[in-house]
């Protein structure tokens, strides 16, 4: 396990003022599991578990993957949010409700684009 991953995870959780039980409930994992990772009893969580932990901890999935030793910076998974966040905002300070509202807006934009593309495709036939 990368040195200090459990301590890193504990620090993230505490900065969000979450108990192990609250984090477990939000991420869909047990509080006991989180406790064991934080204490170094268990190894680094799998990428799937890290993905579940990212949202409630308000940290980018790529960052968890790097801290866990799965990614080096040059192997970072391509995403848009980290680039925007690094340049313009600190996403860790955005309330969960705001994040959900933004995601809904983005989904609506995607739906509109798909509908326009389908309409163009029908017109071309």
TrEMBL record:
Task: Report the InterPro entries cross-referenced here.
Answer: Cro/C1-type_HTH, Lambda_DNA-bd_dom_sf, TransReg_Diox_bact_type
Query: Which keywords, in A-to-Z order, does the entry hold?
Result: DNA-binding
Give one Pfam family: HTH_31
Entries under SUPFAM superfamilies matching the protein: lambda repressor-like DNA-binding domains
Gene Ontology cellular component list: cytosol
Give this protein's Gene Ontology molecular function annotations.
DNA binding; DNA-binding transcription factor activity
> Does Magnesium count among this protein's keywords?
no
- Annotated protein name in UniProt: HTH-type transcriptional regulator, competence development regulator
Q: To which species is this protein native?
A: Candidatus Hakubella thermalkaliphila
